[in-house]
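Database export, one record per block. Field names are fixed; values are copied verbatim from the stored entry.
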Amino acid sequence: MSKKHRHDDARKDKPSKWDAGESRGAEIGGLPPAVSECHNNEGHVDQNPDNHKRMYPLYVELVKWQRHLIEADERVVILIEGRDAAGKDGMIKTFVKHLSPRETRVVALGKPSDREQTCWYFQRYVPHLPASHEMVIFNRSWYNRAGVERVMGFCTEEQYEEFMQTVPLFEQMLVRSGIKLFKYYLDISKSEQKKRLKDRRENPLKQWKVSPVDEKSQALWDSYSRARNAMFSRTHHALAPWIVVRADDKRAARENLIKDFLSRVSYEGKNEALARPDPHVVFLYHEAYLANEMIAP
């Protein structure tokens, strides 16, 4: 047998992340490391001990869940949607902070190419769907067509209607194929968006986030609200419901999205007490939440 075949067979025996030589211990859990030893995902020391103590148990639960994902050969897709400056990047960084990068992928597609614009709309997303024991997080997703493309006129009325009618069918097909699909919408107020966009423009470390679309976000606020509401009402379905996260408070949003996710998945050794999100922060979409402004007007 060739070296290549021996290597391939060995990889089939055990998930790569949990090989005995790579595992950090048979049990996952225990006390958090000292704050002085805790680093964020950019290699910098986390200077907030309260934040570290609060989030550490949730990170442990996510790692336990990922072990189950790998061992059970599951496939998971998470969509993170929201207005400009809703906190999508920070949310995703927090979620994946301690997960295995080998089984975790974050997808943020740019503007479609000339060729992609002639293809079936969902075609450029399909190659990024997960294989067995993988999780894929889409930082924005196929719902661009229901939001920014709709508001900014980047698609025709016919293309928009085609999308709205077919996206539930596309998602049902994914779920019935075995993919577990979670759709999160980070919801912020107009005043909070204004503050964050100002910070984005003035902060030299956030210049990479600035885009021409930002300038129109506030002026087109009502148009984006109408597009969001139509998206909720027409694409919220039993197999892939919309989960709304009130995101003016970034810390509460990140903590409660993780708690909500944990409440929706099964895995060995689950700490049920931690998987209890605040229902005032994260909740399933319902049209009543538009009327009472639980969802920002």
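Remark 1: Confidence is low (pLDDT under 50) at residues 2-45.
Remark 2: Residues 34-111+120-291 form a domain with the Rossmann fold fold (CATH 3.40.50.300).
End of record.
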